[in-house]
């Protein structure tokens, strides 16, 4: 997946335009953790080819079934099927990071339950932060249920734009006047408590650079806001809208702080396995009932969390770790291998059917590509016609 695909994702707000800057340039002053050798380049290109080809075949063969046929009867089961297939493919990425690249992923903070419906918010240090949320989601059995807020221009990416639409990511322009109706409409579709959900947002609105940090600090000084050194000021309106709309169907909110030791990675660093050496992920869990209800209080709560996050990152820079490490174990090598074999086998079967079987498979592939392109461009979603499993009218979750 393109490293910039969600690098600008976040919750929109009209208040902090200073954070809407150009793409970041991460310092390369520090040496890479591992040298970039020809073997690493070859291995990285092979991994990228596998990831892209499996994504393409998964989408064109299964997306029409899970997003055209199943929704006619049940949106709930349509989402379950889509999430299963999405999660199966997505699991290849944590396996790449932890098993092939040998990146050490260290979890700390609160031990969170499995399979909760949650809203996650995290700092945005570099263009690949969002990818490491997959490592946590995989351990909690929720990998296929993770959704992101991302800038709308990314919906135009070939293949991946199709996936973003099928998986119901929320596209935004990062102008609250334009984004509010879109966010509220999309969020209102996620209120069924039977549908597992991990909604991930990056309230800073863009990834961190020193230049953006200086502008953020200037804005904070002019407006009497906290001066932050390791994060940008968070945007608050979209975060409050998310909490407000989903409150009755969420279990918790996770405050996630990500730190890199010793050098922040770029996307291609991940592909070639040269960085990062270690990724540290600190989690603080808050019951949804503990969050304030008013917009003013929610904004103040989020701002306070970012002050705490800033202090955590300062301590991490000094000490090289977050407090209370070791809350999650390592990924199972056997499960990673099984997932890889299953995905490759399914992709191989689909490829064989496309090129060597009946012409009807070629027609199906052509239809699927046309459908995915049209559905993404025109934002087409099939409503239930023959039956629907709807959430209770109150959208109350069972406690």
From TrEMBL:
Listed transmembrane segments: 41-61, 337-357
Single GO MF annotation: 1-acylglycerol-3-phosphate O-acyltransferase activity
Annotated metabolic or biological route of this protein: Phospholipid metabolism; CDP-diacylglycerol biosynthesis; CDP-diacylglycerol from sn-glycerol 3-phosphate: step 2/3; Lipid metabolism
Catalytic activity: a 1-acyl-sn-glycero-3-phosphate + an acyl-CoA = a 1,2-diacyl-sn-glycero-3-phosphate + CoA
Key word Transmembrane present: yes
Swiss-Prot/TrEMBL keywords: Acyltransferase, Membrane, Transferase, Transmembrane, Transmembrane helix
Protein's name according to its UniProt entry: 1-acylglycerol-3-phosphate O-acyltransferase
């Amino acid at each position: 997946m393109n490293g910039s695909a969600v690098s600008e994702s976040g919750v929109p707000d009209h208040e902090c335009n200073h954070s809407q800057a150009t793409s970041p340039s991460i310092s390369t002053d520090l040496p890479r953790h591992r040298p970039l050798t020809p073997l690493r380049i070859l291995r990285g290109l092979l991994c990228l080819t596998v990831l892209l080809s499996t994504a393409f075949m998964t989408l064109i063969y299964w997306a029409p079934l899970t997003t055209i046929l199943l929704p006619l009867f049940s949106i709930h089961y349509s989402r379950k099927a889509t999430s299963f297939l999405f999660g199966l493919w997505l699991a290849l990425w944590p396996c790449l990071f932890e098993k092939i690249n040998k990146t050490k992923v260290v979890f700390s903070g609160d031990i969170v339950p499995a399979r909760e419906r949650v809203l996650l918010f995290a700092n945005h240090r570099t263009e690949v932060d969002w990818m490491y949320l997959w490592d946590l989601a995989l351990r909690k059995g929720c990998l296929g249920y993770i959704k992101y807020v991302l800038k709308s221009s990314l919906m135009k990416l070939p293949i991946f734009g199709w996936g973003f639409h099928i998986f119901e990511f929320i596209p935004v322009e990062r102008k609250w006047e334009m984004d509010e109706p879109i966010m509220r409409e999309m969020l209102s579709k996620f209120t069924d408590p039977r549908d597992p959900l991990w909604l991930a947002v990056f309230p800073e609105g863009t990834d961190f650079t020193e230049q953006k940090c200086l502008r953020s600090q200037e804005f904070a000084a002019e407006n009497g806001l906290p001066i932050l050194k390791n994060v940008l000021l968070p945007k608050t309106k979209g975060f409050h809208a998310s909490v407000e709309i989903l409150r009755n169907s969420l279990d918790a909110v996770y405050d996630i702080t990500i730190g890199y030791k010793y050098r922040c990675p770029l996307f291609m660093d991940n592909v070639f396995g040269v960085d990062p050496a270690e990724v540290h992920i600190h989690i603080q869990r808050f019951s949804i009932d503990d969050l304030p209800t008013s917009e003013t209080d929610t904004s103040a709560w989020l701002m306070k969390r970012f002050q705490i996050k800033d202090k955590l990152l300062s301590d991490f820079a000094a000490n090289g770790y977050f407090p209370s490490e070791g809350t999650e174990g390592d990924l199972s090598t056997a499960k990673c291998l099984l997932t890889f074999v299953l995905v490759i086998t399914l992709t191989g079967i689909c490829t064989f059917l496309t090129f060597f079987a009946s012409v009807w498979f070629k027609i199906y592939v052509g239809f699927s590509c046309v459908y995915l392109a049209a559905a993404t461009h025109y934002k087409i979603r099939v409503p239930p016609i023959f039956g629907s499993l709807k959430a209770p009218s109150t959208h109350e979750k069972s406690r």
